[in-house]
Structure formats: structure tokens, C-alpha cells
Amino acid sequence: MASLQCAGAGALALWQRQHSSGKRCSIGRQYRRRCSIAVSIAQRGWCQRAGNPRSGAWRAMASDSQAEDEEQEDALLSDEEEETEEEDEEDNVDVDVLSNEEIDALMKEYGNVVRSDPEPRKSSAEDANADAEALSMATALATAANEVKAVDIKLFHVKPLIYWARYFLIASAFSMPQVNAIVGRIEDIAQEQYGKIPRPSGKPSGWTLMDFGDVVVHIFLPSQREFYNLEEFYANAPLVELPFVSESSSSSTARSDAEGESEEEMISLS
Amino acid sequence: MRPQTYSNVADNSGARESMRIRVPGASNRQYASIGDMIVAVVREAVPNMPPKGSEVVRAVIARTRKGLNRDNGMAIRFDDNAAVAIDREGNPKGTRVFGPVARESRECHFAKTVSSAPEVLR
After folding, report:
1. What local confidence, expressed as pLDDT, does residue B55 receive?
2. Chain A to chain B, count of Cβ pairs less than 8 Å apart?
3. Residues A140-181: pLDDT tens digits?
4. Degrees, nearest 5: CA angle A191-B71-B20
5. What's the Rg (C-alpha) of chain B?
6. Looking at this predicted complex, what is its ipTM?
7. A237 min Cα distance to partner chain B (Å)
8. What is d(CA A16, CA A31) in angstroms, rounded to the nearest whole number?
9. Which segments does the entry list as coiled coil (chain B) (predicted)?
10. B109 vs B61, which has greater pLDDT?
11. Which of A16, A62, A190, B78 can bridge B63 by disulfide, Cβ–Cβ 3.0-4.6 Å?
12. Chain A residues closer than 8 Å to B63 by CB
């Protein structure tokens, strides 16, 4: 996202290279006006505060600049003021934000898409479809894991928290062969029903991750699940109800102990 | 990131600073960038935690001052060099990552680092 951010201790300077066409940039039209001003400021390596390019803070930063930078910024600001002159008449103050319709009109008249975002934002309808598909895939994968006797299966809807995935499926397995079996089963289901292949992320281990883009599957050994504690990290993500009752690890160990005892009784009787 | 580069360790594994030695799997590869795995030696560590000073660890580069350029023309640069300690299987040694991480780590097969990170830059 072409945003200007100041991120605390790991402060970063995020800037954009200006296209040869001048003020126009193809990355988010709502940042178009900020881009051209931001480039000249960012070139001095300053950490930018997200906000209005016409706010006092930005003007204060501009006033500290060298003469040629000031001229460049003033030229850019005045150009954009000319474009928005008609809209500014009513307000008598600088218009800080153009409406979408005004930006569309300006883009139509002057705009020239040089390069489009390879990950464009989806419309709400497309997003809803993608959400539904991701949910059905996550539920199918959870069912597949349950069939291979994975325990403590939980499905988190993480889209409100992070942008790079919609659902996290977390499950536990008791041994590496079981982890391999779950991985194989999930890969088969994902390929056959949804045509998706997981992104390669190393060999299966104590924490096995399968990245299907919108759905990310985490398979842990019980000790690793406790160690990494992803459920606490994503505790604000709502849990999704699954169509089956997932066994918890404590009940499965209790059941296996009971089965072991009954087997011993059988052996002693015989 | 070149050999001998010092970088912060951006997780709670116990190491604080590390120095890059090599990039594994290449004979004389000089530069490592965000998303690359490196071999590093711990230079400074939190007392009474597992990684000791002068212990050799593997790490994934999470942030660099040099930064990276993306296909859409965006360039990202960070204020520090930072790496996340991992083990031989690629699992992070710590449980949480500190600071933002670029999404390239996910594309370079280190989605576990991204899962533990508080912020992933689009």
C-alpha cells in the first residue's frame, strides 16, 4: 500500500519514485496528491507522518527545506490548487481531501495509468465471494484434518487483524508420521476440490505451515503449540464454528490411557 | 547485507545483536537481502538466555537499511538491519518478532516469521 507511515522504533521511510509523467502515480489514486509532495520530502530521508499533506506539520517540514525544494513543492501545490480551484470556491480554505468523484474526473482528464497495482483491491462483491470460498476451503481442510485424527482443531477468522490471510487453521498432531499424513490429506483435498497448491515452506517439522494464500494451515506438535502460542497472539480473531466436534488433546490422551489399561486387563485375563 | 554486518535480532530468542558470516548454500555470495537466510554469530545476548555470545545461529533477514525495490515501483527502506533467529528446520527460535516485516519473507518461504510479526508491510 502506498502509504506514508512512521512506525515506531522500526521507523521506515516509505517513498515512491515519481513517474516521468510528473504528479501522477499509479499506486492508489487517493495518494496521488501526496505522492509528488512526499517524494521531495522523502528524498531527504525524513520519516513521514501519515496525514494530510496540507496540514501544518507538512508545511512546517517544507519550510525547513532548501530553496530549490521549496520551489518544487510550491509549484506542485500551486498546480494542484489550480486543478481544485473550482471545488475550493465554496470553502475559502485549502481543500484537504478531494472526493472520489473529483479525483475520478481529474484522472479522466489528466490521468495516465503507467503501471497498475499487481494486487489491486477487490470490490466488496468480489471480496465477499473470495471470503466465502476461503471459508469453505478452510472448513474442508479442517474436516480433512479431523479425519486423520488431528486434535484441538481451531479455525480463526484473521482478516480483521491481518491483510495477508483470511483464515488460520491450527491443529495439533502427536507424531511426525501423523503430521505427514495430515499434510498429505490436506494437500490432496486442496488440489482436488479447489485447485490450490501450498506455497513451499520447508519440510514438515514441529511447526508445519501450509500457505494457501487466503487460508494458512498450522500443524503443531503439542509442545510446539504451547511454545509458540499462536492462539494468544491472534486472540482477537473470532473463532469459526466447525461442522464437527474437535477432540481436545487432553481427552484424547485420557482415552488412549484408558484403552491401554483395558488392553492390559485383557492380556492379564487371558 | 554484507559479511561482518551487524544486525539487531528482532525476536525474543535471547540474542540482541548478531553479525553476518555467510549465506548458506552459495560459495561466495556477498549480499543478502530481506527474506534471505544467513549464518550469523551472536555478538550480544540477553543474560541467562539460551543463545550465548559467540554462538553461531541461522537467521532470516527481516529488515535492511538498503531495503528492497518492488515491481510496482515502490521502494522500502528501514531504519535498521534486523534478523530473526531460526533453527535448521526453519522454525523461529523465539516466539514473537518485534517491529515490521516486509511481505517478501512470506514469498521466500518464511511465513512462520510473518505469522509471528506484529506488522507486515504490504
Report:
1. 86
2. 97
3. 999 999 999 999 999 999 998 898 899 999 999 999 999 999
4. 90
5. 13
6. 0.85
7. 13
8. 11
9. none
10. B61
11. B78
12. 10, 12
What pLDDT does A71 receive? 54
CA distance to A24, A200, A245, B24, per residue, from B60 (Å): 36, 16, 38, 11
Backbone φ and ψ of A223, nearest 5°: -65, -40
Inter-chain CB proximity B112 and A230 less than 8 Å: no
Helix H or strand E encompassing B9: strand B6-9
- Its pTM stands at 0.63
Q: What confidence tens digit (pLDDT) does each residue in A98-143 have?
A: 788 888 888 888 777 666 666 666 677 788 888 899 999 999 999 9
Query: What cell does A17 get?
Result: 519514485
- Could you write out the DSSP letters of every residue in B38-94? EEEEEEEE-TTSSSPTT-EEEEEEEE-SS-EE-TTSEEEEESS-EEEEE-TTS-BSS
Interface of B with A in 93-122 (CB under 8 A): 95-96, 98-100, 103, 106-107, 109-112, 114-116, 119-122
Q: Are A205 and B109 in contact (CB under 8 A)?
A: no
CATH number for position B110: 2.40.150.20
The answer, for B24 touching chain A at a CB cutoff of 8 Å, is no
* pLDDT (mean) for A251-269: 52
CB A128 within 8 Å of CB A214: no
Nearest residue on chain B to A26, judged by CA atoms?
B72
The Cα–Cα gap between A153 and A185 comes to: 15
Residue A82 has pLDDT above 70, yes or no: no
Range of the domain at B49: 5-120
Q: Given strand A167-172, what is the order of strands in its sheet?
A: A207-211, A215-220, A167-172, A151-157, A239-240
Q: Cell numbers at residue A194, please?
A: 479447489
Among A11, A15, A207, select the one facing B79 at the smallest CB separation. Answer: A11
Own/partner contacts of A108-112, CB < 8 Å, gap of 24 or more, are: A110/A24, A110/A83, A111/A24, A111/A29, A112/A21, A112/A24
Q: Are B50 and B14 in contact (CB under 8 A)?
A: yes
Q: How remote is the C-alpha of B15 from its chain's centroid? A: 12
**pLDDT higher than threshold 80 for residue A267:** no
- In the structure grid, which three cell numbers stand for residue B94, read together? 523465539
Look at A65 and A194; give whichever has higher pLDDT.
Answer: A194
